[in-house]
Amino acid sequence: MHSFSGGDRIPANLHGAVVAIGNFDGVHRGHQALLETARRRALAAGSPFGVLTFEPHPRLFFRPEQPIFPLSPPPLKQRLLAATGADFLLTLDFNRALANLEPRQFVDQILVERLKASHVVMGYDFHFGHGRKGNPETMRRFGDELAFDVLTVDQVTDDDGLAPFSSSAIRDDLRHGRIRNAAHALGYWWMMTGEVVRGDGRGRALGFPTANIPLAPGVEPLEGIYAVRVAVGGSFHLGAAYIGSRPTFRSQGRFLEIFIFDFDRGIYGERVDTELRAFIRRDAKFDSSDKLVAQMRKDCEEAVAQLRSIEAHDPMREFPLGLLQSEGRL
To answer: Is the pTM of the predicted complex or chain greater than 0.90?
Structure first.
């Protein structure tokens, strides 16, 4: 997949694309349905399949004092979108200039002049342009006038037809430790990606050496212990992870600390993916290091049991992205 941003020129061989528009945070199953609609239309038309998205999330731009919980930071979102079959991705900087574009200006400058889109695919509730004045009906009127087709994808619901897939609902599930619910809505195990930094060595002293990754503002899954699968340098390992602020040791900041089973290699500076696969318990403060270590042993035993059960029958394999993830191809 080709990736473009800012003022990058879109090459002529990608003009006339079927373009899916959205924020796509998390690229959940509702997003995937929209993207699959665009992919099939592009295939039928013999046109490129493109995705148009925005960074940062518009809500963060308008309310910077309230960091949004990002389900898929830009590098991860790019990987997820590539896995849906997109030929190219255009990420627009959501800044004051973009926010001030009137709906017609947005369509003229981005969709017509820059992308020369033949089709636009959007969600039923997508709004665009200054003051969110643009909507699917507005886009259809522009399409009729400017000679591009517009497809609107209706709300996509869960298997029972009741609960719509929603990035907000997935964030809420993660905040409450409902890992399986979040994964079911995403169609893959939610993952955190980051660079390993040097810690204070406390984990190694306790017999549980950990890979430590600082958490960005807004990243707020429930603090506690998780069973995880970790991708390190192209290989996959099972482990237990802690998310929190280390109340036993009165640390500053919030961290992801990963204890990888049967692993003894320095990985400082390396980027790793950590898939949360099961929630074990909430964070807690312990009276002594001995009590903490005893609980950590129990946590690891529980994590092993949970991970073995999932490895025997991974429920995410029934979904396209979950299958790719399981096979190490996401």
So the answer is: yes
